[in-house]
Amino acid sequence: MQSRGRRLSRNKYGAVRTEYRGEWYDSKMEANYAARLDLEKRAGKILNWWRGERVDLLGSPGRPGRVTYKPDFHVVYPDGQEVAIDVKGAVPRDFRIRVALWELKFPNLPLRVVDKDGNVCWPKKRRPVISRASSSLAASTSKASDS
Question: Model-level pTM?
């Protein structure tokens, strides 16, 4: 892998554009993940992968208020499942909005965010939320039915 020198401007997160197998990636982390996907493909853990394409999530091209998103990779697993993957060192503030729009537009194509080690950091496992009011209501309802 080859990184471009410091003379080039870095992006707002300090990522350095990096080349892997003749293609330029927005960061070393992305290029490393592409190498990892190549290894997983050779090992038979995935069938195929390719770079993600920019899609319109809201609005139309050339119009104000347009929201776009480009996942870093598109991966196909041996069972046929397809997943969009984004490699992130930090999750920007507007990311939750983009994920919600992605899920509305592509309900059958899950979006996964992975860190530099390939660990899934989005979606996070969610615990059921039970407020004290609803749990006390359930307790009082069960006591009333016991009487």
Answer: 0.72
